[in-house]
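Entries read chain and fold; for instance:
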Amino acid sequence: MATFLASAQFGRCPIGYLKCNKSHDGITLDNASAYPDLRDAPTIVLCDFEVKHANVVGIITQEIRHRYPGAEIYFAVFGAMTKDPSLEVRNFDDLTGAEIMRAADFAAVFIAATMSPPGIEPPLELR
């Protein structure tokens, strides 16, 4: 994803990297995270591989809003978990992470595929 976003198609936009550390106390961002220098009130696309139940995206979004005040933030995710094992999605609320993504107040959310529990791991099932 980062290679595509940094391509000529997107004008060689700056790419950051956020590494999360999970512990029994919660989620923190690792010192290895990289934050590019951006203009005021930038447009930011956060990309992740999957979104399930955890509020990782909420914590990341809070950090981004703190570092880049006035940012317009979009979220692109490869797989989003459904509440129904049949993978049927009639509306956004049929995703397990709907409340978390709404609370993050994204300008828009882009989802490539849905997945059933346990997520993108064997047995892999996407639609």
The two ends are 20 Å apart (CA to CA). The CA atoms of residues 18 and 33 lie 5 Å apart. The chain has three helices and five strands.
